[in-house]
């Protein structure tokens, strides 16, 4: 039996995690969950929102399913998410964003994969107050990390029959940092003559994504633009409730939805568990449980086809009601 780390998170985290675990169990996948708590709730007891045991668990098991963890704004500890990605060198944040059958949106032709660099940029957390009225935040871009993420994007494109990689930056303004990112992307692109390579500025990219998302395929971005643009692409296919993600490194992978802890709907049984279910489907593919992964995806799509939706998609189903409907479809 495979042991997988389970981080339940906070806010809507426990509700959606419970949904995903129940569905995986109902599909007959035997997993020994190594449950690890993290976030604000463990600070008092353990002195950190991300105790070493969590990092060690993911390192040992190699795979984790993670729910969102709240990061307080403007104070307190460094983000659990950023620290986890950095500590485990989960350098690639992979966020596929594709129309979901029966989920009606403004667009019918979205099939985009966001590849976000996950370890540096403004997320390096190098900030200081120069004086009481001036803050400095340092944007770090290295050739090594930029080439590594570009390589990941092109390899992904190659393995998944994708034909275009677009590097997205603000290199007209951040000439050195984003310029270096582009230089790295161009060098890697030259090794993949069969995959088209384009460059686009992030502001124009946002406008083009809203006007004509069908023109994009794989997007390659530094950390901050990747974070923002992947929320935009989530909006193209029905919102954060359906946007899946994965953080991938050389030795381990953490699968988690794009969305955060949604404090506005936490504890109300309203959350849409689709994003974590789709993330879990990719996790099952990663551990070679491809048949079960396909079964779960089909049961989820059948649930949408039956007209069962949570409130974020205009429906009336609760998180648990939606989960039960998927389980029923699994058993049919
Ligand atoms: P958020 O993604 O939690 O919520 C944005 C909006 O989307 C809210 O209206 C929320 O109700 C809705 N939403 C999100 N997920 C949903 C779901 N599954 N079903 C239905 N509606 C959903 O973003 P926000 O409010 O900016 O962040 C809240 C907290 O989450 C912050 O502390 C932030 O730092 C943290 N966060 C954590 C992440 C992680 O753990 N990987 C990622 C993003 C944010």
What is this structure, in a nutshell?
The chain is of the alpha/beta class. It has two domains: 1-93 and 242-332, 3-Layer(aba) Sandwich (Isopropylmalate Dehydrogenase), CATH 3.40.718; 106-236, 3-Layer(aba) Sandwich (Isopropylmalate Dehydrogenase), CATH 3.40.718.10.
List its traits.
single chain; 332 residues; Isopropylmalate Dehydrogenase; ten-stranded mixed beta sheet; 41% helix
What does the model show?
The longest helix has 17 residues, at 143-159. The protein folds into 2 domains: 1-93 and 242-332, Isopropylmalate Dehydrogenase; 106-236, Isopropylmalate Dehydrogenase, CATH 3.40.718. Helix 1 (13-26) runs parallel beside helix 11, helix 5 (143-159) packs across helix 6 (177-189) and helix 10 crosses helix 11. The strands form 2 sheets. The chain has a 10-stranded mixed beta sheet, sandwiched between helices. The model has no long low-confidence stretch (mean pLDDT 96). The chain is α/β, with parallel strands linked by helices. Helix content is 41%, strand content 18%. It contains 11 helices and 12 strands. The protein is globular and about 55 Å long. It starts with a strand and ends with a helix. The protein binds 1,4-dihydronicotinamide adenine dinucleotide. 1,4-dihydronicotinamide adenine dinucleotide binds at residues 12, 68-71, 81, 240-241, 256, 259-265, 271-272, 275, 312.
């Amino acid at each position: 039996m495979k042991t997988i780390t389970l981080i339940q998170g906070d806010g809507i985290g426990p509700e959606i995690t419970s949904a995903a675990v129940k569905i995986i169990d109902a599909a007959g996948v035997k997993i020994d969950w190594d449950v690890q708590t993290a976030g604000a709730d463990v600070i008092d007891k353990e002195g950190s929102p991300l105790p070493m045991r969590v990092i060690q668990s993911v390192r040992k098991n190699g795979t984790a399913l993670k729910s969102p963890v709240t990061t307080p704004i403007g104070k307190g500890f460094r983000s659990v998410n950023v620290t986890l990605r950095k500590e485990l060198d989960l350098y690639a944040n992979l966020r596929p964003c594709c129309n979901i059958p029966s989920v009606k949106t403004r667009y019918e032709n979205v099939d985009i994969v966001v590849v976000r660099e996950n370890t540096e940029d403004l997320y390096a957390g190098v900030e200081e107050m120069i004086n009481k009225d001036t803050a400095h935040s340092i944007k770090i871009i290295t050739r090594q990390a930029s080439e590594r993420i570009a390589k990941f994007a092109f390899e992904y494109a190659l393995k998944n029959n994708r034909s275009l990689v677009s590097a997205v930056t603000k290199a007209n303004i951040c000439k050195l940092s984003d310029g270096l990112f582009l230089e790295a992307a161009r060098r890697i692109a030259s090794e993949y003559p069969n995959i088209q390579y384009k460059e686009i500025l992030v502001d124009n990219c946002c406008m083009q994504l809203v006007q004509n998302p069908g023109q994009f395929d794989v997007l390659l971005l530094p950390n901050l633009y990747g974070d923002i643009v992947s929320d935009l692409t989530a909006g193209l296919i029905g919102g954060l409730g359906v946007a899946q993600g994965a953080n991938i490194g050389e030795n381990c992978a953490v699968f988690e939805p794009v969305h955060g802890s949604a404090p506005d709907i936490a504890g109300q049984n309203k959350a849409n568990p689709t994003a974590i279910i789709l993330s879990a489907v990719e996790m099952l593919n990663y551990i070679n449980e491809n048949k079960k992964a396909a079964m779960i995806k089909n049961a989820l799509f059948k649930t949408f086809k039956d007209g069962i939706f949570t409130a974020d998609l205009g429906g009336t189903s609760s998180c648990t009601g939606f989960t039960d409907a998927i389980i029923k479809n699994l058993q049919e």
